[in-house]
C-alpha cells in the first residue's frame, strides 16, 4: 500500500462513522470500510474507495457486513459509493 493511501485511510478513520453522522449521532470513532461495488467475491476494492464506519455500522448486526451491502443500503437509504463520495467531499472538497 502506498504511503499516500495509508494517509488517506487514516484521515477516513478520523472522519468518523458516515452512518452515525447521517442519522444525527455526530462524530463516532470509525474503522475503514472498503466499498464492495465493482469487485468480485473475495476481492477488495482500492484503498481509496473507502468510508468510515463505527464497529456497529461496520461489523455489527446493523452493519454493512452484518446485513450485507444491499440490505444495509436499503436500511439507511444511501449507497456505499454515496458514503465514499461524501467522505471524499468532507476531506478534500474545501481544498483548492
Ligand atoms: Zn456508526
Ligand atoms: Zn468493511
Describe it for me?
- This protein is mainly alpha-helical and 96 residues long.
- It has one domain.
- 50% of the residues lie in helices and 8% in strands.
- The protein has 6 helices and 2 strands, in the order ααββαααα.
- The chain has helices at 3-15, 18-22, 55-59, 64-67, 69-76, 80-92; strands at 31-34, 50-53.
- A two-stranded antiparallel sheet has the order 1-2.
- The termini are far apart.
**Rg from alpha-carbon coordinates:** 13 Å
- Given as residue ranges, the uncertain stretches (5+ residues, pLDDT < 50) are none
- Give the CA-based shape: globular
How helix-rich are the residues, as a percent range? 40-55%
Distance between the termini: 26 Å
Tell me the domain tally.
1
How many helices? The count is 6
- Sheet bearing the most strands, described? 2 strands, antiparallel
Mean pLDDT: 93
Alpha-beta content class: mainly alpha
Number of strands: 2
- What is the N-to-C order of secondary-structure elements (H for helix, E for strand)? HHEEHHHH
- Which ligands does the model contain, each kind named once? zinc ion
Strand content: 5-15%
Within the largest sheet, what's the order of strands? 1-2
Protein name: Recombination enhancement, RecA-dependent nuclease
